[in-house]
Design a protein that fits this description.
Layout: E1 4-11, H1 16-27, E2 34-41, H2 46-56, E3 61-66, H3 72-86, E4 91-94, E5 100-101, H4 105-115, E6 121-129, H5 144-150, E7 163-165, H6 183-193, E8 198-209, H7 214-217, H8 221-237, H9 243-250, H10 252-257, H11 260-269
Parallel strand pairs: 1-2, 1-4, 2-3, 6-8
Antiparallel strand pairs: 4-7, 5-8, 6-7
Helix pairs in contact: 6-8, 8-9
Pfam families: Glycos_transf_2 (PF00535)
GO molecular function, one term: glycosyltransferase activity
Protein name: Glycosyl transferase
């Protein structure tokens, strides 16, 4: 059977009432060849630390503690380095510390990758919850060519739904650490530029937590600038430069800088 490593980062401010069900949703998968790897990114709350200490004694849980906060990208890269060095896992799946993986998530993704040998990274639909602008089902394009075009202006995956073939991370491919809050998008565009192939499974296999404050954290001119430069570079590399794409990419700047009430409306009705 193929072995799956699920990687997750925890940092100060993550709430124990969200972390517990998130971790349980991984440990209770119907796919039994699944291990959980957690990166502790600096100081964390005492109740979270106590819970992680309890988790650490379980057979299929590995925790790496870091004294300083280094950010999500570096934390995930540390876990990937550890897993690739071990060389014992066929697939690497993402998870966030406040989302909920459906019981059959890992088995469905493994089955998909075992059947579709040309696909390197696969995501899924998700159900959002926890905010007034949550979507019952967030859908994304399914096949590689559609995702390749879609990625010029939108993100091709819901990040915590993704599963990679472990071989994707050969040759030192990792999450870029020189971006501002856009590490996942930068990785997708880097992988597309290197010829890796994407897909999404048309099933809701993860419940994605939002809050009323999530939107506010995404309002940033710095993030908008970082995203613009990455997307323009990808547009040129992938030979998808067009007037339409240029307009859509530059419209991402006001999108990231708009008032919160405008963003909530756009997230609810125009995604």
């Amino acid at each position: 059977m193929k072995k799956v490593a699920v990687i997750c980062s925890v940092y100060k401010g993550d709430l124990i009432e969200y972390i517990k069900p998130a971790m349980k949703s991984v440990l209770n998968q119907d796919y039994k060849f699944c291990e959980l790897f957690i990166f502790v990114d600096g100081d964390i709350d005492s109740d979270v630390l106590l819970y992680l200490n309890e988790l650490e004694v379980k057979k299929y849980v590995t925790i790496i503690y870091n004294k300083e906060n280094v950010g999500l990208a570096q934390g995930l890269n540390t876990l990937i380095d550890y897993i690739i060095e071990k060389g014992s896992h066929d697939y690497i799946a993402r998870m966030d510390s406040d989302d909920l993986s459906r019981e059959n998530r890992i088995s469905e993704q493994v089955n998909f990758l075992e059947t579709n040998h040309d696909i390197d990274v696969v995501g899924t639909y998700c159900k959002e919850f926890g905010s007034s602008y949550s979507l019952d089902v967030k859908k994304l394009p399914l096949v590689h060519e559609e995702l390749r075009s879609f990625s010029v202006v939108r993100c091709p995956f819901v990040h915590p739904t993704v599963m990679f073939r472990a071989t994707v991370f050969n040759n030192n491919i990792r999450y870029p650490i020189n971006t501002l809050m856009t590490e996942d998008m930068a990785l997708w565009l880097d992988l597309l530029s290197k010829g890796f192939r994407f897909a999404n499974i048309p099933q809701v296999l993860l419940d994605y937590r939002l809050s009323e404050s999530t939107i506010g954290r995404r309002i940033s001119f710095g993030k908008a600038k970082s995203e613009l430069l990455i997307r323009l570079k990808y547009m040129v590399q992938s030979k998808q430069v067009s007037f339409k794409n240029l307009i859509l990419v530059f419209l991402r700047i006001p999108f990231h800088c708009a008032p919160e009430f405008v963003l909530k409306y756009l997230y609810k009705y125009h995604r």
